[in-house]
Amino acid sequence: MEWSRPRRNDVGVSNRPEGPKGECSVSENALPAAKSARSERIAARTRGENWKKPPRRIETSECITCDSCLRSCPEEFGAIFDRGLDVVIIPELCSGCPACVLECPVDCIYVDEDWQPTDASLWSHIDLSAGTS
Ligand code: SF4
Ligand code: SF4
Q: What is the mean pLDDT of the chain?
């Protein structure tokens, strides 16, 4: 199964204004370090140590698979994947920022206080897609 992620030059992270959406953005100069940090989280399969917010989750029964959230997740997190039949947030990669929530047309992205570690089978897809984001 092949998962898709947004084209990175569509995201425009460094162009985001300050404000609710800007809180999870990084400057252009900091982006390589941020992407490296994402790679480290993928390798360790753990969330950022300094993240205070819980991750988000997508309620599949409400999601219309429009991919708006996928395009809005900042590059330094890259936590949302389209698996074909559904769209998922990987909690270990999700800072809870919550840029995606602001873009969802049906408001189906919820706080996931009781998140569970991602299955090894899912990580294999994430490992494959890491570095292409
Ligand atoms: S809250 Fe949404 S936009 Fe923010 S990191 Fe998590 S999945 Fe990405
Ligand atoms: S923006 Fe909302 S409806 Fe669209 S794919 Fe994401 S979670 Fe689903």
A: 82
Q: Which atom of ligand 1 is nearest to the CA of 53?
A: 1
Q: How far is CA 57 from CA 1, 20, 23, 107, in A?
A: 21, 19, 19, 11
d(CA 7, CA 133): 7
Ligand 2 pocket residues where CB is under 6 Å: 58, 63-69, 87, 103-106, 108-109
pTM metric for this prediction: 0.80
- Could you state, in order of their start, the residue ranges of all structural domains in the chain? 17-129
Q: Who lines ligand 1 at CB under 6 A?
A: 24, 56, 72-73, 77, 79-80, 89, 94-100
> What average pLDDT does the segment 46-54 reach?
96
pLDDT of residue 94: 98
Q: How many CA atoms lie within 13 A of 3 on its CB side?
A: 25
Q: Which of 73, 103, 115 to mutate to test the pocket of ligand 1 (most atoms within 8 A of CB)?
A: 73
pLDDT in tens, 111-125: 999 999 999 999 988
CATH code for the domain defined by 17-129: 3.30.70.20
